[in-house]
Amino acid sequence: MSYYITRAIKVLKNSNMVSVQVACNNVKPIKYWTDRYGDSEKTKEENLKKIGISIQQGNFQGTPKATIYGLGTQMNMREMEHMMNSFSKLATDVTFDSDLTYKCNFTNRVEEVIAEEFFVPMCLGKHVNSERLVNRIDALNEEAKKGYRKALEDDLKNDRVRICCAIRCNYPKGYDCLISKDRKAVYLAKIENYNSGVLEKASEAYVVGTDGNTEAFYVLGYKDEVSCKAFLSKCNIDIAA
């Protein structure tokens, strides 16, 4: 992963852009340079929000003595990172996993809230309204729970199962072996019914493993035809090759 090793971030009085003193982590020897970050057409608040989000995403990582020079304020960057991370933990129902699975984008929205309500005012020497920050994250938690429940209901209604692991079967041909995201079931499904982490027509698939038993995944994905046939026979499954 590439990121900027950061020595200093400075809010400029006479410019809406932000001064950064950084080095690229994967270029050796490490060499720092000073540059301006942001868009001159954007407001100071918008550019600070953008860099606040980037810090949360790990694109800017402070050295132990890295400093953020705000307007009338001065903060250790590592401490700032720690405080923003503490706020992100309030988002108990907003997870990267559910965002990735259901394309909800809640994680990015939490980062935006923390940048807007904490990072930006801290850099501008303004009051941080902690109550409003917490309330906004709580609202995202509730929205995420409702969205997640609706997504699960839609999957059930549309005979759809989310998949975490998939492998093309050696035998039978034309089938995939799939482990459900909750790891409660292993499916043997026609390849045309599976795509990018989603099994469609799940009721038409064979269940060849339950409760975390992934033997089927190993046998059907890696063993020879004789072993696969023996395993399917044990499961009382007869598929014409």
Structure description:
There is one protein chain. With 241 residues, the protein is of the alpha+beta class. The protein has 2 domains: 4-152, no CATH class; 161-234, no CATH class. It is built from 7 helices and 11 strands. The chain has helices at 44-56, 77-88, 96-102, 106-123, 130-157, 215-222, 225-234, and strands spanning 4-11, 18-24, 33-37, 60-69, 74-76, 161-168, 175-180, 185-190, 194-195, 198-199, 206-210. It has a 6-stranded antiparallel sheet, covered by helices on one side. A 5-stranded mixed sheet has the order 3-2-1-4-5. A hairpin with a 4-residue loop joins strand 4 and strand 5. Helix 1 (44-56) packs across helix 4, helix 2 crosses helix 4 (106-123) and helix 4 runs antiparallel to helix 5. The radius of gyration is 25 Å and the shape is elongated. The relative contact order is 0.09. The mean pLDDT is 91.
Count of helices? 7
**Biggest beta sheet summary:** 6 strands, antiparallel
Summarize the helix and strand pattern as letters.
EEEHEEHHHHEEEEEEHH
The strand count comes to 11
- Lateral arrangement of strands in the main beta sheet: 9-10-6-7-8-11
Categorize the overall geometry: elongated
Structural domains: how many = 2
Strand content: 25-35%
Estimated radius of gyration: 25 Å
